Structure formats: C-alpha cells, structure tokens
Amino acid sequence: MELEAILAKEIKKLRQDAGLTQAELGAKTGLDANYISKLERNEKTPRFATMLKICHAVNTTLSALVIRVEEQLKIGE
Prior knowledge:
The chain is mostly helical and 77 residues long. It has 5 helices and no strands. The chain starts with a helix and ends with a helix.
C-alpha cells in the first residue's frame, strides 16, 4: 500500500478511535467535514499544519501518527 493511502487509513482510524464523526472532527479542527472525508478516502493529502490540527483534536501527537504509518509501511513490505 502506498504512503498516502496508509496515512488516509490512519487518519480515519484516529478519528474513529477518538469516537468522533467527521463533522465533530471538523468542528474541533476548523476543517470542513467534506474535506476530512476526502482525506480519509485518499482523495486529498493533508498539509503538515492540517495533520497537526487533526492530531491535537484526537489527543495524539504527530510523531505517534508517523510511527503508525511507518509500522503499516513495514507490514506491507
């Protein structure tokens, strides 16, 4: 699986693990729920600042997200 697809999957998983809908995550981050949907479906790639907002909203760190993505990349090798 490619990096962007893994990132999209992990963003969705973080949101779901936090018990948030796309609309709720949007409200917490100032992002449109439609945009979050596109991120989760790998139709858009988030900027660094967007990833920071998402991580903050779900009470995790950007480094934790990066580790999750790296682990998935290693599994796919």
